[in-house]
């Protein structure tokens, strides 16, 4: 009997050393591990995907807000790192680079908007993961 799933994201890893195929609707990409961890290095590591989710959400949220307020924001660049302090203690560091003719007040407002992105809220809140066999 084959289970029917209506998942938003589907992830599968076959026998190719850690090459992991990911799909979400019509979009497809790959996660992997670097060669020094026996991977094939065909895509970012899962932790890099997590950091990229925070960065992408931050960048999009800032862009949307700036567009709505008609700020002269030319571009947003977000640098994200994850510092693993212990098995259960991690720190995300974000550096937001704003380019454009922005006042000090607009720059400060856009920085505060970064904390309103949905991924930031998810990572800052209580997280529960339920896992079952399908």
Helix content range? 25-40%
- The neighbouring-strand order within the major sheet is 1-2-3
- What is the mean pLDDT? 93
Largest sheet composition: 3 strands, antiparallel
Distance between the termini: 11 Å
Cα gyration radius (Å): 18 Å
SSE order in H/E notation?
A: EEEHEEHH
Q: Structural class, from secondary structure content?
A: alpha+beta
User: Which consecutive residue ranges, at least 5 long each, have pLDDT under 50?
Assistant: none
| Fraction of residues in β-strands | 25-35%
Quaternary organization: single chain
Number of alpha- plus pi-helical segments: 3
Shape: elongated
Overall number of strands: 5
Written overview of the protein:
This protein is α+β, with helices and mostly antiparallel strands. It contains 3 helices and 5 strands, in the order βββαββαα. It has helices at 46-69, 104-114, 118-124; strands at 10-13, 20-24, 27-31, 73-86, 89-100. The strands form 2 sheets. Strands 1-2-3 form a 3-stranded antiparallel sheet, with no helix packed on it. It has a two-stranded antiparallel ribbon with strand order 4-5. It is elongated, with a radius of gyration of 18 Å. The relative contact order is 0.13. The model has no long low-confidence stretch (mean pLDDT 93).
């Amino acid at each position: 009997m084959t289970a029917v799933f209506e998942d938003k994201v589907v992830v599968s890893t076959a026998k190719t050393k850690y090459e992991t195929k990911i799909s979400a609707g019509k979009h497809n990409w790959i996660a992997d591990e670097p060669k020094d961890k026996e991977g094939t290095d065909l895509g970012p590591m899962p932790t890099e995907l997590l950091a990229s989710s925070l960065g992408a959400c931050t960048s999009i949220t800032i862009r949307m807000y700036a567009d709505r307020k008609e700020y002269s924001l030319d571009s947003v660049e977000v640098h994200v790192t994850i510092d693993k302090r212990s098995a259960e203690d991690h720190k995300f560091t974000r550096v937001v680079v704003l380019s454009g003719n922005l006042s000090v007040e607009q720059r400060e407002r856009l920085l505060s908007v970064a904390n309103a992105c949905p991924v930031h809220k998810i990572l800052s809140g209580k997280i529960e993961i339920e896992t079952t066999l399908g």
